Amino acid sequence: MAIAGARNLATLLAACLSLSTLAGCSGAPPRTAESNKDDSPVFFHVDPATVGVLQGYVRFSGRNPARKPIDMTSDPACVEAHKGQPYDESIMVSPDGSLANVFIYIKAGLEDKSFEVPSTPVLFDQKGCWFSPRVLGIRTGQVLRIANSDPVTHNVHPMAQVNREWNHSQGPDDAPLDRKFLRPEVMIPVKCNIHSWMHAYIGVVSHPYFAVTAVDGKFELRNVPPGDYVVEAWHEKLGTHEEKVTVPVAGQANVSFTFKGEHP
Q: Mind listing the domains of the chain with CATH numbers?
């Protein structure tokens, strides 16, 4: 009897070992549909049949401010790299009143949507002892790739308030820097601690609906889901303006901004 009992116990142990993935022998809780659920984030995808276009124009009203010359003589290499008299670019107004370097973005109306982060980096260069572009937009979590095309050392110092502030020197032969901003922040000022005239501004948003006006003052946001939004226009010297706008189903919405006054 003792031998038979030992054989039965051995058989039972072998069965448990062969079924170790089952909860009855392993002691592990059984896997359920809930435990098998994919925890990946759910991203919003636009419906091409319903999306619309949001476009507009930004102008400056008032006497166009005189552009101020920038003195780069403290670094002869910058004088040589720039090849010409540099002027302050904080307010860029065309003869027809169009205003450049205005950051446009949807400020409210997309809170219930999550968007996939682009895999392509946003390029940010130092060329002619300027940051280029002066104003740019980027998505949260997207790579900002920073290059130095100048023959001199620069310093990249984003003075973030919501994101982490950092400060990094970059020589003429250094490899590009890759950085990310993980939280929305409009705007992050950037300076060069070596060349005081170098400034830029980065708008970090969690969605793809933003733009920067060119010299013609125009902007266009495509593939916008139909709905009601608050759109903000930001300028480094002239402040901000907001407008409410409704993007119709498969239609077009227009919104314009006017920045008034004369910057001293």
A: 1-37 (no CATH), 52-260 (2.60.40.420)
Decide if pLDDT at 7 tops 70. Answer: no
For the chain, state the CA radius of gyration.
28
C-alpha closest to that of 259 among 110, 48, 97 = 97
183-200 pLDDT, tens per residue? 999 999 999 999 999 999
Phi, psi of 2 (to 5 degrees): -60, -40
Q: Classify the phi-psi angles of 238: left when phi > 0, otherwise alpha if psi is within -120 to 50, otherwise beta.
A: alpha
Distance between CA 161 and CA 165 in Å, rounded? Answer: 7
Q: Closest Cα to residue 117, out of 137, 139, 144?
A: 139
Largest CA distance in the chain: 109
* Model confidence, pTM: 0.84
Residue 155: alpha-carbon gap to chain centroid: 21
Give the span between the Cα atoms of 23 and 14, in whole angstroms.
Answer: 15
